[in-house]
Amino acid sequence: MNNPLVNQAAMVLPVFLLSACLGGGGGSFDLDSVDTEAPRPAPKYQDVSSEKSKAQKDQGGYGFAMRLKRRNWYPQAKEDEVKLNESDWETTGLPTEPKKLPLKQESVISKVEANNGDNNIYTSPYLTQSNHQNGNTGNGTNLPKNEVTDYKDFKYVYSGWFYKHAKNEIIRENSSIKGAKNGDDGYIFYHGKEPSRQLPASGTVTYKGVWHFATDVKKSQNFRDIIQPSKKQGDRYSGFSGDDDEQYSNKNESMLKDGQEGYGFTSNLEVDFDNKKLTGKLIRNDKVTNATTSDKHTTQYYSLEAQVTGNRFNGKATATDKPGNGETKQHPFVSDSSSLSGGFFGPKGEELGFRFLSDDKKVAVVGSAKPKTTLQMAILRRLQAAQVRQHRAVRRLCRLKTVS
Question: Is the dihedral of CA 54, 355, 62, 261 positive or negative?
Answer without folding.
Answer: negative
